[in-house]
Design brief:
Elements (H helix, E strand, L loop, with lengths): L2 H67 L6 E2 L34 E4 L6 H9 L3 E5 L5 H12 L4 E5 L7 E5 L2 E5 L5 H10 L20
Parallel strand pairs: 2-4, 3-4
Antiparallel strand pairs: 1-6, 3-5, 5-6
Length: 218
Amino acid sequence: MSKSSKRAAAVSRKARIEEMRRAERARERRNRILTITVSTVIVVGLAGWGAYAINNANEKEEQKAAAEKKPVSGEKTWDSKKLGRNHVAEPVKYPMQPPVGGNHNQAWMTCDGTVYTKAIANENAVHSLEHGAVWITYNDKAADADVKTLTDKVSKTPYTLMSPDKNQSGTITLSAWGHQLTVEKASDARVEQFLTKYVQGAQTPEPGAACTGGLPAS
């Protein structure tokens, strides 16, 4: 091969190599652009999702706070500041039946989802209310099916207790410290609302106090 032919071949190889390098650099640029674009989309998407999640969480907290302030329809309330909280040994004459607060015995009834089949002392149950429990009572008008439904619900709910009370006027009564609701049926949606709001709710004089280790069923 002549020198001119060799020179031409070398120039051609150099041109091809340069063209391959340009093509490779172009691919690298495209890949970088694609990577940056995808990363930007992901970051923007995550930021958008994060903002949505935060807004959604804030909205739920606001709804919860609003629900906590709003009374359950039909409930009665008493000024908790006027309900005594002294420990006494003698029986207490309460102005409402079942009581929703006031002076009480130093021993509380076990209220860790505890179902009592016999009536319990008001003075011990009120101490349970002070610890943030909800006390469900029922009289002879309550249907067996409703008693069974409430028994199942209470047994699965810490900081609740349940017992019969033939002296109350309402069929089914839910009591928390300073709050009380009377319903006719266990299926009433307000039962769950009351439990959600007042089990260890904001009304609790001694939040976090034990509901275990109290008096057992007699």
